[in-house]
Amino acid sequence: MPYRATLLDIAFDVAQRIPLVTKFPGIYEVLSYDAELELRDTNGRTAIYRKRQHVRFVQDNIIAYQDTAWGDGEIFAEYHCSPGVEVDRYREGHRYHILISLRETKNQNDQAVLNVEWLIRGGFTKSVEEFQVDIDHRTRHLNFTVVFPAERVVKQVSLIEHNANRTTKLAADHREQLPDGRYRYVWVSKRPRLYETYIMRWEWSTAIEEQEAESFVALIQQRLMKLNRLRELYGEGTSIPALKPYAQGFDFTR
After folding, report:
1. For a tag on the chain, would you pick the N or C end, based on fewer CB atoms within 10 A?
2. Three-class SS of residue 93?
3. What is the CATH T-level fold of the domain 2-205, as seen in this structure?
């Protein structure tokens, strides 16, 4: 509902200005958050999720932080982080939590850039798919991106703000074509709401539709090849009287 979303926006802006409330939970605030899902093939069987957070620590003596992962398929086909190393991983409900040791101590007002990358296999194979970003720290700026392969048609992309119950269809001003023909859809929020879930949902052509299109193209090509063979056979006319009407009827003698 648009009124509910507007009220949530106003309430969040007011809360930001109250000193007691601005002390949000967590060990750091996020100055900028870049989240990118790259779909590597037309079947959605291989994808890479990259997360880059420029953070400012709000507590002293921080030696580790927690990452969270979820989704369909094999979401931990590969997992990389920098700085730091993964020291523990456990499941809670449908989510996995990953404990990352920084290998150094961070104190209040220290800054760092936290990079995480997952390789996901078999995670986006349906005709309608989605991926989400959760805002669980105070965040000043969010870039949320999904990159699609050039060979598969994307019918529609929407950005859903779950708690605000608001859906925005991403038009051309959110879309960019890359030099290799792929398309990138981007959602930017300068002040994403704390505890909001931002969902990028897309509908793309199914494998059946693509197979039907390829079969149709192949059929047309075969018929054109047969037509060209007939043109070569009858192109200069024929000396057989019984075949002349057919050659003229196919317009091969002109």
Report:
1. C
2. coil
3. Immunoglobulin-like (2.60.40)
